[in-house]
Amino acid sequence: MTPTVDLAQARPIPVADWVTIPDLYADPYPVYQRMRAEAPVHWVPAVNRYMVTDYAACHTIEQDQERFSADETNSLMKRAMGHSMLRKDDPAHDVDRKSYGGVLRPNAIKRHWNAVFEQNCAKYLERLENAGPGADLISEFAAPYAAENLRLIMGFRNATQDDMQRWSQTLIDGTGNYADDPDVWAKAEQSSCEVDDAIDEVLPHLRANPDHSLLSGLAHLPIPLEAIRANLKMTIGGGLNEPRDALGATVWALLSNPDQLAQVLAEPSLWSTAFEECIRWIAPIGMYPRESTQDTVLEGVLVPKGARLGVVVGAANRDPKIFDDPETYDINRPKQPHLAFGGGNHFCAGAWVARASVVGVGMPRLFDALPNLRLDPDAPAQAGGWVFRGMLRLPVLWDRR
Ligand code: HEM
After folding, report:
1. Is residue 29 in some structural domain?
2. In angstroms, what is the span from residue 284 Cα to ligand 1's centroid?
3. 2 has a pLDDT exceeding 60
4. What's the CA angle centered on 77, arms 75 and 79, to 5 degrees?
């Protein structure tokens, strides 16, 4: 239920005209620190959005679809991928979300996907080992591992993990194409057509030969093809880069903090803590959109109807009102829920898949396979991005057996 709000008492939203996109891309956290200290919400001309950086405000938005709709006007995501569940409110959202059934949930992971993760992990660890010390952990391991896992879960038997990586990147680039670059649109449209063709080709096969994949489940439901296409494109865009980035950033955080790595290696239950702390510290999806449906008050500031909001969970996850010493990666901090998987009705549908593939398999197998895994002092790791943030490169060394 929408709470009663006193519009007259609310403060106006300040303008942050000092924020630039290159600063956000290089390192958004000093920018977020300054914004959070000033106000929970700012109008940011460079981004053409109201950016919400305060934990309580982000949490409120996630829980209240009546005041804060996911169905954004002129959404670039809708243009790039079609109208997926991520840009719908309930009850329409709920219909699409239920169409995914149990495919991404713990039972199916235990029964079918853990074995797939093990197989894929072994394959791409071998690729990394063959590339030799000095190789980039992201391109040789984390990216193809995440892509192949997602390909098999989704049921794209007629595509490769390279197709998945290309589709994911170009569709995401479309959703972020605020500059309206025609080349970016052309690539996104090309990928969108390729995904449509792959779906059209594989659905009849799966109707005759069902398996455990998402596409197989969808093939047997009376759900419009347009919804299947949009939801699958959104899942390709949202289910590949994030586990890749979470794995890469957690490895980077642990290799940069050898005492914490030693703790994890001595106590394997801490792989999970290391992962959750990492996605708090660097949220792979740093910001996602909502639109206000009415004039309203958010943490004391007046948000006008129709405001294009950016829910900056990358900033909320470092809110000092919630987390002590929030800029530091610390697996020993007191447990406190982070917002990296979102919340409310759009809480990440793939959170269990991410945890099982990265915490259950990817990270422990990686550290088992490569003795004395360490950063390469001559080739520094580099992180980048703010709407999506992860390792751009992570060169690593290890001792040969
Ligand atoms: C560490 C990895 C991941 C992170 C941090 C992450 C983060 C998120 C976030 C923040 C949202 C909500 C966005 C919003 O409300 O606008 C979301 C939604 C979603 N995610 Fe993930 N995700 C991850 C992995 C995955 C994986 C592996 C899959 C698929 C296998 C997946 C599938 C989805 C889907 C289908 C939704 C839409 C849910 C809905 O609208 O009801 N995600 N994710």
Report:
1. yes
2. 10
3. no
4. 75
pLDDT of 207: 94
Q: Residues enclosing ligand 1, CB less than 6 A?
A: 85-86, 97, 104, 150, 153, 235, 238-239, 242-243, 246, 279, 284-285, 288, 340-342, 346, 348-350, 353-354
Range of the domain at 126: 7-397
DSSP string, 61-107: HHH-TTTEESS-TT-HHHHHH-S-GGG--TTHHHHHHHHTTTTTSHH
pLDDT category, 289, cuts 50, 70, 90? very high
pLDDT at 179: 81
> How far does residue 52's CA lie from ligand 1's centre (Å)?
19
- Specify the number of domains making up the chain: 1
Secondary-structure breakdown of the chain: helix, strand, coil percentages, each rounded to the nearest 5 = 55, 10, 35
Residue 349 CA to ligand 1 centre (angstroms): 5
* Nearest CA among 313, 321, 357 for reference residue 338: 313
> How far apart, in whole angstroms, are the C-alpha atoms of residue 225 and residue 219?
9
Say which CATH number the domain at 347 has.
1.10.630.10
Non-local (6+) Cβ contacts of 186 within 8 A are none
Residue 1 domain flag: no
Q: Which of 171, 242, 348, 386 to mutate to test the pocket of ligand 1 (most atoms within 8 A of CB)?
A: 348
Q: Establish if 161 belongs to a structural domain.
A: yes
Q: Is residue 43 part of a domain?
A: yes
Over 60: is that where the pLDDT of 51 sits? yes
Chain CA centroid to CA 210, Å: 29
The residue to which tokens 């880069």 are assigned: 241
User: Taking Cα atoms as reference points, which of 178, 179, 149 lies closest to residue 165?
Assistant: 149
Q: In the predicted model, what is the mean pLDDT of the chain?
A: 96
